[in-house]
Amino acid sequence: MAKFTSHFGSKRNHFVVYGFPAIASALGSFTTANVKTIEGKGWIVDDQRPETPGYKIKKFDEAQKSIKNVLEYLKIDTDSQKLEITFAGDLIAASGVGASAAQCTSLARALNDSFNLNLDDEKINEAAYEGEKAYHGTPSGIDNTASTYGGLIWFVKNLNGGKNTMDLLQSPIKMPLIIANSGITASTIEVVADVRRLKDKNPNKFEKII
């Protein structure tokens, strides 16, 4: 079973996607993934994560597409074998806590372990990023990077398509963090697209805001 600490910072995407620097921090909660090979083809999912009511139903199609993206990126054959994928852990599946990145990264690590792919963190991160595209459309990459490397990170997206900037930071003190859950499950793809439309419609006003 692949177990890792999940991360917070997804809402920074509204600025990070435009190349602005951001800091993301790990949480004490985590998502786990376990992959078993069984007879058949395709995959089935047993999602045991705690959730904001209705989250997993609303995100079902995105979750399935994210799994497909990760499997295809890692070239996992699901035509001659069937995968039984189980997600668990104590990170609540909710909007705004990096739950999708936690799911994608834990899946990539579990597949790496199950199929002896010998992937380093950079490749795990790339696979998780592909999964995040199903949830975000055009993700910044900060959530999956935080989920892959853990700790406290400084992140800047490369707008030219090259390698993003990521530095691990050290904090001399532990900082308490309070997270409030509104109970609302939002579509990140739609929200990011709305922000992009506002930017394109009023570029000068948008520049002043950010």
In short:
Pathway: Isoprenoid biosynthesis; isopentenyl diphosphate biosynthesis via mevalonate pathway; isopentenyl diphosphate from (R)-mevalonate: step 1/3. It comes from marine sediment metagenome. Helix content is 40%, strand content 23%.
Fill in the keyword field for this structure.
8 helices, alpha+beta, globular, Ribosomal Protein S5, domain 2, six-stranded mixed beta sheet, 210 residues, disordered N terminus, single chain
Provide structural commentary:
One of its GO terms (biological process) is isopentenyl diphosphate biosynthetic process, mevalonate pathway. Pathway: Isoprenoid biosynthesis; isopentenyl diphosphate biosynthesis via mevalonate pathway; isopentenyl diphosphate from (R)-mevalonate: step 1/3. By secondary structure, this protein is an alpha+beta fold. The chain has a single domain, classed as 2-Layer Sandwich (Ribosomal Protein S5, domain 2), CATH 3.30.230.10. 40% of the residues lie in helices and 23% in strands. The protein is built from 8 helices and 6 strands; from the N terminus they run E-H-E-E-H-H-E-H-H-H-E-E-H-H. 35% of the residues are buried.
Please specify the SSE layout and strand pairing:
Elements: E1 2-8, H1 13-16, E2 22-38, E3 42-47, H2 55-58, H3 60-73, E4 82-89, H4 99-114, H5 121-136, H6 142-149, E5 152-156, E6 165-169, H7 188-201, H8 203-209
Parallel strand pairs: 3-4
Antiparallel strand pairs: 1-2, 2-4, 2-5, 5-6
